[in-house]
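Course assignment 3, question 2. Fill in each field.
Student: A.L.
Task: Predict the tertiary structure for the chain below.
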Amino acid sequence: MQFVDLPAQYKEYQKEIDEAMSAVLTSSRFINGPEVKKLEEELAGFVGIPHAIGCASGTDALMLALMALGIGAGDEVITTSFTFIATAETIALVGAKPVFVDIEPDTYNLNPQLLERAVSARTKAIVAVDIFGLPANYEAIQAIADRHNIFLIEDAAQSLGAELDGRKCGSFGTLATTSFFPAKPLGCYGDGGMIFTADEKLAERLRIRRNHGQQRRYHHSMLGMNSRLDTLQAAVLLAKLPHFAAEIDQRRQIAASYSESFAPFFQVPVEKPGYFSVYAQYSLRSDRRSQVIETLNDAGIPTAIHYPVPLHLQEVFSELGYQPGNLPVAEQVCEEIFSIPVHPFLSDEDKDKIIAVAIGALK
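Answer field:
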């Protein structure tokens, strides 16, 4: 059993993927080929935002977003401690200071009720993460950002295709970023990322910065990065995109079946009215996590822990001075959470086995 079954997905779409990649190989336009622009146009339309700018990874997307907003030394950026390190890593890499805020105990997203007290005179932006494919509370977070005249960046690395009140993730904030890492709901065959914005000037700045800061060849107006989205990766994504909605639907069906079965035994994911998750991960909580994981693994069922250590307690951020107990919800979640397979190619037989074994581990 696979945690994410990429071989099964490839087998299902092999003809389209092979043809798309072969076209790139034949044209040999590996850098800035027409597939990149086509993907940008299609995903901009999908998200409902005017501009989509492809780049080399989800991490680079965050880095470029921070750079485009002029965030750097002396600035503070508020974010969640319960996420992959790239969210805070990029803040530090541009020279700014990450300021961590605790999460909601049910959604695991940034807690807006705790957000405002973290704002200081140095705060330049908020980076909100749509953890596990569930949108953050953007109505509340955007109101705080507006009140203090600071930027909001949506980290939609896990949430492409998700919605809040009918509005697609990738369309919130001044800028939004996503990742096409292979295990993501829409993944390529390597690294890839994208930035979304309604601001034309920011979009142009991002296009320049992703290509060494050059407006035309060998003429550089600003510092930039080598962060173009490879044409081959764009081709793979274009081949997968027509199947994306059906895959999301399948993820949601599996998640609904899980939640119905697991609710009496575990803390299951929540999806409040108006929220539409893509279930990039299906994560359960239990104070007997080790016992459940061992039982699942012994039965040949893969698991993962997203995430075992909150960012404010990571060694790399020790100089910021956070101590155990500072963000109690994130710390508790990290001790109890684990994820099980929820990919769209999971068979009913495997799904039922996962349910039976996980529940059986508690008896």
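Instructor remarks: The chain has two domains: 6-242, 243-360. The chain has a mean pLDDT of 98.
Grade: pending
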